[in-house]
Amino acid sequence: MFNLSKILLFVLAFFAITTKSFAADVTMRISIQLPLKSHLGQNLLLFKNDVEKKSNGEIEVQIYDSAQLYKDKEVPAAVGSGSIEAGVASLTRYVGDIPAVDLFYQPFLLNSEEKVRKAVAKGSPIRGPIDKAIEGTGSTVLWWQAYGGAIMLSKGKAIKNPSDMKGKKVRVFGKTLGAFVRASGGAPTLISGSEQYLAYQRGTVDVGMTGVSGVKSRKLYEVMDTITKTDHGDIEFLVVANSKWFNSLSKKHKDIIMSSALMAEKDVRDKMSQIEADAYALAKSKGMKIVVPTQADIDAFKEASKPVYDAYIKNAGKLGEQLLDAASKL
After folding, report:
1. Is 232 helix (H, G, I), strand (E, B) or coil?
2. Cys-Cys with 24: which of 14, 15, 60, 292 at CB 3.0–4.6 Å?
3. Where does residue 22 rank: exposed (0-12), middle (13-18), buried (19+ CB within 10 A)?
4. Cα–Cα distance list, 252 to 27, 36, 53, 177, 276 (Å)
5. Spatial separation of the C-alpha atoms in residues 308 and 109, rounded to whole Å
6. Residue 226: what are its φ and ψ, rounded to 5°?
7. For residue 227, which of 156, 305, 296 has the smallest C-alpha distance?
8. Can you give the C-alpha Rg of the chain in angstroms?
9. Residue 315's domain spans which residues?
10. Which of 226, 279, 236 shows the shortest CA–CA distance to 104?
11. CA dihedral sign of residues 210, 214, 220, 221
12. CATH classification of the domain holding 71
């Protein structure tokens, strides 16, 4: 007569051994504040599929989207400390340790795709020193994710001139962008990307600041009705890995991850113009008004922004001077 309990134990033991034998050698968890359907989320998915295919399943990539594990501002510390293997954070989240990173948010400095591509090229006089400086936080930069130019969001009236900013509470996502708002007459309020929708819905702020792709992925067209194409800053995200974890991997696994990272970086950068065009088209179809400031309006913003450059030069040290000099030569 069969002993059902013994049979059950045997089956469970067999499945435990089988599952263990097929488990990945390396698990790489990645935290991202954006939804998986966003273009940065899809870019991570592209990376995941490529890594797992190239490694024959030896490396498993787990994506935790929509700030399930960490908010954007928490990612640098979480990755640097090893609490998680990897994460996605906006470049400006490193400004506390490396003030010079906010070069990308100096108003209207990197205001063309050509300039941005030169600045973010791996090993360039701008990106190279930034990647090196981030190593000092305990993280290794795997790749940069393009998010496009900064825009203004509003309700009822476009923000196309500094005079339109006066007395308005403005959502920002970095110190330098806050300085830009303050210099233009507004009151900056630091709000993470995942909290934008509620902030606009509840009227916590009057004006929004983001990339246009965020209007699509976060459905911001439901709570704002006007986009002003200022392109006053270039928004970049970084995919970083904990250096101790990454350096502990075999050469084979490190090479696979870096190869997939290079592929993912090129893919998102090459698609950025179309991603923005699609987002603008969707916003328009949802009833949003798209406003382009005149050159006179842009000049007024530039004039108001002079104190922002002065503060950057003062606070960003020698690295800031080095990066600003390199940017001026683009």
Report:
1. coil
2. 60
3. exposed
4. 15, 28, 14, 41, 36
5. 12
6. -135, 135
7. 156
8. 22
9. 4-328
10. 236
11. positive
12. 3.40.190.170
* Cβ atoms of 170 and 186 closer than 8 Å: yes
DSSP β-ladder status, 86-90 and 234-242: antiparallel
CB-neighbour burial class of residue 167 (10 A; exposed 0-12, middle 13-18, buried 19+): exposed
CA–CA distance, 233 with 109 (Å, rounded to integer): 7
Q: For the chain, what is the domain count?
A: 1
Contact of 45 with 75, CB cutoff 8 Å = no
- Whether 225 and 289 have beta carbons less than 8 Å apart is answered as yes
pLDDT digits (tens, 9 = 90+) for 251-291: 999 999 999 999 999 999 999 999 999 999 999 999 999 99
Residue 57 makes CB contacts below 8 A (sequence gap 6+) with 22, 24
Residue 197 per-residue DSSP state: H
b (16+ CB within 10 A) / e for 251-264? eebeebbeebbebb
196 in helix, strand or coil?
helix
**Chain centre distance of CA 301:** 25
Is the predicted pLDDT of residue 186 greater than 90, yes or no? yes
- More reliable by pLDDT, 106 or 13: 106
* Strands (DSSP E) found in 77-138: 86-90
Question: What is the pLDDT confidence band of residue 21, given thresholds at 50, 70 and 90?
Answer: very low
pTM here is 0.86
DSSP per-residue codes, 158-192: ---SHHHHTT-EEEESSHHHHHHHHHTT-EEEE--
Distance CA 195, CA 205 (A): 12
The count of C-alpha atoms lying within 13 angstroms of the C-alpha of 255, restricted to the half-sphere facing its C-beta, is: 5
Contact 291, 160 (CB under 8 A): yes
What type of residue sits at position 149? G
Q: What is the pLDDT of residues 96-129, one digit of tens each?
A: 999 999 999 999 999 899 999 999 999 999 999 9
Whole-angstrom distance, CA of residue 321 vs CA of residue 314: 9
